[in-house]
Amino acid sequence: MADKQDSPTAAVVVDPDGMVSGWSEGGRLLLGWTAGDMVGRPVTDLLVGPPPPGFPEGYGAGSDPTGFILLRHRDGSTVDAVAAAHPLSGPDGQALGHVVTIQRWGRRPVIADRAFEQSPFALGVYDPELRFLWINASSGRVIAHSEEQVLGKKYREVLPEFDRSLFPERDDKPYTDALAEVARTGEPTRLITVFRPRGSDYANAWATSIWPVRDAEGMVRAIANWGFDMSAEYWARQRLLILNQASGGIGRTLDVVGTARELAMTPVPGFVDLVSVDLFDEVLRGEEPPSGFPFAPGETITLSRAAQHGTKADSDQAPGATTPVTHAPGSVAARCMAAGRSTVELAAEPGQGGEWAFGPGLAADPAHWPPGNPVIDESIAADGLTGRITVPLRARGALLGVVAFSRLDRPEAFTADDLILAEELTAKAAVAIDNARRYSRERTTALTLQRALLPQGLPNQEAVEVASRYLPGGTGTEVGGDWFDVIPLSGARVALVVGDVVGHGLHASASMGRLRTAVRTLADVDLPPDELLTHLDDLVLHLASDLQPTGPFQQTGESGATCLYTVYDPVSRHLTLASAGHPLPLIISQDGTRTPVPVHPGPPLGIGGLPFEATELQLPEGSLLTLYTDGLLESRERDVDEGITELQRALSHSTTSLETLCDTVMDTMLPQRRTDDAALLLVRTHALDPHHVADWDVEPDTAQVPRARKLAVDQVDAWGLEEAAFVTELVVSELVTNAIRYGEPPIRLRLIRDTSLICEVSDASNTAPHLRRARAFDEGGRGLLLVAQLTQGWGTRHTPDGKTIWCAQSLPQPGRH
């Protein structure tokens, strides 16, 4: 082309057969062809590519040239032009052909053409059918074609690979579809296209804009695009996305193996094709990891593969499963763990002429690598790998294991930035795995402590039949402070207890143990339920004061608890209960009707200064009592009232076994993923046979002691317990004598035959006797010592009307007769 600031207009006369019959001087100036060159030749010889439809007939309209064509200059270059065809007629009206006027598009300076041609951005223009009209040199390099090779050809013919998405899993739109949509709608668009240029092993990311080119009347006459390589920015963003995904995807559960699997799954397939995570067995067990590097030189290292995930179907390890793996002495994994440094292995040195091919859009500068990396190891190709990054898994200065990030089929070599990404992922996962290990250790310790503090076996007694269950919260939740207990009391009675300490973890388990011990101690004193809870409330207040921090950085544990304390008497069938903020029991009679409990729970333990209310119910024989903690009812799917209704429905199952009913209730009420502990105590009440109870009034006269002894011995003989008659006679004599001498009337003697033989003497005095050691010449003080030596146990309980002194003898064959 001639370097002119203004371009001339060419006039071409074309006969009806499409042959050039006239050629103007402007044609020579514009295209370099002379009249001698062109007259007699087909006008289509001027065109680059096939002629557009309707050329020259009707091409353009009137004096406003609107037809876009690409012409061939005599020097081999191309001229982007607009043309208008004007019909040519003879004197008698016969058609003589057309006069076609041709102008350079826009009459722009030639230097503008040079600017677009030399632009570092890829530029292209296509007709509405997506045929190439023009591309610059940068675009030619991207598509690996020259302008002459593609002009007039359709985009899909030249670049069929752009007619499909490179990443169909992301639902990316094929680039050709984007071009066609702009041609159809006339709306511009912008997109990022990821593809592998021809002759390259690396996927590049291009930012592209596509827009319609309109004529003076607004018609879309062409489609233009430009793009630039943004691979460095794109892949850096992809790394950030993987790290962001890791932030939300690694460490979601406090489970060592689960966290290892989260690490294995996060970078596949966006970063690598296969990830394996190997851990020390101590880490899996929640124990302290080995200190330092625990293996001698030359020793084979045995770890457990906690997780493995890859793009191939057979590369996945089953979730939750672990398998032993060995790393030979001197292996890459062994060296990485010993040195505490990562290693990058490549199957072959990429690039040509000693230059490193770092990856799409990154500077080929080996100075970015840390010392010793990368290592060319052709042996990994035998395992089907093109590259591998091995990173030691360390947290808080301790070595937990090793992680391997492998690429299988992709040709891209790892870059220095890839190593940084692998180390970032591993560091984040290492902290999460160590947190899970520490949690597992604390949870195991707390659970062991709690189970040691809970009843290992429920005592034998005839007042009730009991069955119990305790389930800790699911994995990911700390152990709570739920507890239950069954405590035999004097007079064949039994105390039924259930409670829940605020908080979770070791503190809750330890507090639960202290409260359970306190309840047992207070129960031995035989306090009424409301008084017992008052004393327990004071204890919790003292525990809370003990937990106050002594320094500015000392953490305090939570304090407070709920407790339900009930006492059942099989002689009277009376149930006395009081609650400190704990759910009341469900009481269901044998006919299935629910017995209401007319008492309101008092405040939780640890509030202080508020009273507790006790109530007494008389239960039908065979009543079913259900004591539980709130973990049995709480659920996201239902409220408390719905939970109670569902619990009552579960209790209605017809079964004679409390153990089976316990399992049914737990299976029905508890979801698969529990967030809290749950304790359940099922109790079926019995009534003591009236023939197993005998009582008499005793006159406050020492002369009545022989009569009391005889009544007791006769009753023991009537029960067939002749072997207990001698001890019974001595015990009754001592207790009745003390009541007459030191107590106040009325005095009452009662014998109860239960699992043991119980003797009770009651009077109206509140003065309790004390066991003491009598001196050699003392006349008294040996009676209670004698009772304590001859019986299984003895004690005093206070009643609203005075006190009761009791003692119990073991029977050879306990049970009902």
What can you see in these coordinates?
This protein is of the alpha+beta class and 817 residues long. It has 19 helices and 32 strands. Strands 13-12-11-17-16-14-15 form a seven-stranded mixed β-sheet, with helices on both faces. Strands 2-1-5-4-3 form a five-stranded antiparallel β-sheet. A five-stranded antiparallel β-sheet has the order 7-6-10-9-8. Helix 9 runs antiparallel to helix 12 (416-453), helix 13 packs antiparallel against helix 14 (529-546) and helix 17 packs antiparallel against helix 18. The protein is elongated, with a radius of gyration of 48 Å. The model is unreliable at 1-5, 61-65, 351-366, 552-558 and 774-781 (pLDDT under 50).
